[in-house]
Design a protein that fits this description.
Number of domains: 2
Oligomer: single chain
Number of helices: 8
Bound molecules: NADPH dihydro-nicotinamide-adenine-dinucleotide phosphate
């Protein structure tokens, strides 16, 4: 089978196509024949060495496909099941062995590409809006990179929950995409000061929560536009990691709450995984949640997919098709 391997952390050129035998599922695992694999920013961090993995490794944390065979003790899925998963590395490949407990059986009305596009960013949007800072009607929210893969889905879920949503985007085209996802106002933060604009929109009061995936360039300024006892949910770092801060600064800014969450800690049990994935896939099936697949690439073009994602050229989801 073909797979992408990284032997040395570095640039997109380190994503090398190699041949390897099809693996056998161990106890508790399933072998999945991958139909579509999702590209996520976390794949960039592992490729570049910001997040550590034992070398060599196959990137990719999300896919959909068909169960080919199962290992000892697996009863959750069986060969022939259409499934999807997130948070298990190695999906830039034609086949992957995956812990069966991470697999979700797909509803009939959800295709492989849709599922591969929905799992990781969809469940992320779900935990941020339903658990990290559970939104209610009347809440005011700022979503950075609101036209991005995770951003567009957070905007939609925040609207489903009745919040007023302000978004940021890197250019006018992306601003229009964020608007069409439901954002009430979108700030082009490459030319406008988002803090000034958000203060205007909120009459100087600030927002209840910021969902910040951009990090270095947005984090500190964000702390100035959160209402007292509001929350900064810093869940990514597309512009680079945030420098260390003195926790005391949260006090004069309004006794703020700061969290740095990740999906794995919000899918601690199979029940939690099935709740989040079930909601996301059902909402896609009913049309309540709209995905935007920006581009699909053959597996061999994984380096190009990473260049496009890091180059801020994308709005929505990128997929690799093995
Ligand atoms: P996106 O589709 O959001 O792509 C990144 C976007 O970030 C760009 O399109 C760009 O949008 C914006 N951006 C701002 N500054 C920069 C910069 N200097 N370089 C590159 N991009 C920049 O990616 P994802 O949805 O896959 O991921 C977004 C972030 O969320 C990542 O940091 C990722 O790791 C994180 N994440 C965290 C999860 C968690 O559970 N903690 C789960 C999922 C994702 P624009 O041009 O509009 O500014």
């Amino acid at each position: 089978m073909k797979l992408i391997q990284v032997s040395t952390p570095g640039g997109p050129e380190e994503l090398k196509l190699v041949d390897a035998p099809i693996p056998s599922p161990g106890p508790g695992e399933a072998l999945v024949k991958i139909a579509a694999t999702g590209v996520n920013y976390i794949d960039v961090y592992f490729r570049a060495g910001l997040y550590k993995a034992e070398l060599p490794f196959t990137p990719g944390n999300e896919a959909a496909g068909v169960v080919e065979s199962v290992g000892e003790g697996v009863t959750i899925v069986k060969p022939g099941d259409r499934v999807a998963y997130a948070m298990h590395r190695g999906s830039y490949a034609e086949y992957a062995t995956v812990p069966a407990s991470t697999l979700v059986v797909l509803p009939e009305n959800v295709g492989f590409e849709t599922a591969a596009a929905a799992m990781l960013q969809g469940m992320t949007a779900h935990y941020l809006t339903h658990s990290t800072f559970p939104l209610q009607p009347g809440h005011k929210v700022l979503v950075h990179a609101a036209a991005g893969g995770a951003g567009r889905l957070i905007v939609q879920m925040a609207k489903m929950l009745g919040a007023t949503v302000y978004g940021t985007a890197g250019n006018d085209e992306k601003a229009a995409i964020a608007k069409s996802a439901g954002a009430d106002e979108v700030i082009v933060y490459t030319r406008e000061d988002f803090a000034v604009e958000v203060k205007k929109f909120t009459g100087g009061k600030g927002v209840d929560v910021i969902y910040d995936s951009v990090g270095a360039t947005t984090f500190l300024k964000g702390l100035d536009i959160i209402r007292p006892r509001g929350m900064m949910a810093l869940f990514g770092q597309s512009s680079g990691p945030v420098a260390p801060i003195d926790p005391n600064i949260l006090n004069p800014k309004g006794s703020l709450f700061l969290t740095r969450p990740s999906l794995a800690h919000y899918c601690l049990t199979r029940e939690e995984l099935l709740w989040r994935a079930g909601d996301v896939l059902r909402w896609i099936g009913t049309g309540q949640l709209q995905l935007r697949i920006d581009k699909t690439y053959p597996l061999t073009d994984a380096p190009q997919a990473h260049c496009d994602l890091e180059g801020r050229k994308t709005a929505g989801k990128l997929l690799l098709i093995p």
